[in-house]
Amino acid sequence: MKTSRIISWHLCLQFLSLPFLFFAVFSSASKLNKIPKLSPTGHHETFLHDPETPTADSLSEDYETFFYNQTLDHFNYRPESYSTFRQRYVVNSKYWGGSNAPIFAYLGAEAPLDGDLSVIGFLTDNALEFKALQIYIEHRYYGKSIPYGSREEALNNASTLGYFNSAQAIADYAEILLHVKQKFHAEKSPVIVIGGSYGGMLASWFRLKYPHIALGALASSAPILYFDNITSQDGYYSIVTKDFIEASESCYKIIKKSWSEIDKVAALPNGLSLLSKKFHTCRPLKKSSELKDHLESTYATAAQYNHPPRYPVNVICGAIDGANNDDGILGKIFAGLASYRTNRTCYVNQPRNLSETDVGWNWQTCSEMVIPIGISNNTMFPASPFELQDFINECKAAYDVPPRPHWVTTYYGGKDIKLILRRFASNIIFSNGLRDPYSSGGVLENISKSVVAVTTTKGSHCLDILQAKETDPDWLVKQRKVEVNIIKRWIAQYYFDLEVLRKIPS
User: What is the pTM of this model?
Assistant: First the structure.
């Protein structure tokens, strides 16, 4: 059977206590659809020797951690629906102006909150100017926001995982924001929700579903149109290819030729051993697809997070083009790989922990977040189309429930997006860098005066909401200023409306 974008996951020590069903999903024999992660930073891979992610407790004393007794099921009135769990949120009130001053709310996505706190800069960089209260809310089932008292129980089976979805998540955010507004006596404070990638989708959907709570949304790199075949399935890998062509056409051609060269070597009697030695694998290759999957993921990640000043795509292509011709095509490919992941003793099949993002994102893509990413013959990669029925079969085998490939567009919209959002939506910024492969599923044109697209030709994934640096190029500085000015107009209009209403007799 021909499967699409599949990957084998390896069990890790930190999850050895999980039940057998959960084991089966992530065993090395399992094959689940490989939808690239939607993390703002790309720090979703956790190698065994990598330093630990900074925790919320290790940040400055300006950040205070709280836990809210969150409702398990917002949409049902069965007795078990009233169960609660502790959901983490972090508040920074250093620049808070009090009373009606704005609230910036970062909506956590498919990872523990800790990693984002140290790199998401849009809130902290602009809080002083807006005198804003900063709130960061962790997504349910990640980090310390675990229902059922433990991760083992929460991830036990499809029944306990059934409360792990985007609608429940944004309802969580609504409850916490109302709680925080009451706690800080900020009932009239305008709320701007901010998110990146999957979190950017959540931010835009939150504004659509809860306009009475959020005045506006900044949705960075949010591919809300990469569902239900609205976007061509090869959109993602077409942009990856385009990024490499722009960096170096000779590099692109070498990569395109390398796949057949890998197969040619692998077919030799000792071919896998030769490839293992050539690419300094951490364990001997069992099949050539292990190497090809790793290289494909490397190129995709480099393109998605092609951030300045390093620009990983340029780094890889510089090494490929600069390698000794005597090393042949595969020698050049290894040079590119080694330049991307520096200071490694081995480069492929590196021992790694199965992260919470691995675990959670596989469930989310096997339930509602069905992003049909495939590869056509028009890219630098071997063709591998997305086959929906194969994907459904894989997910049913893994979780005993089928995915709902049409649910996102049913619940949030997506079809005829211009017509629909023009009629009832307002105050959403869709920001995208056009070098980001996920921009292929983003909103790239203004829909109305207040539902706007802010794009940059050289931008990459979620770059605009990361911490500002002195080395940031002018186009990135300008993009952020455009976004800030739009939010200022929203807030100014809100205060004007508030004053008008205050003067109207009851």
Answer: 0.93
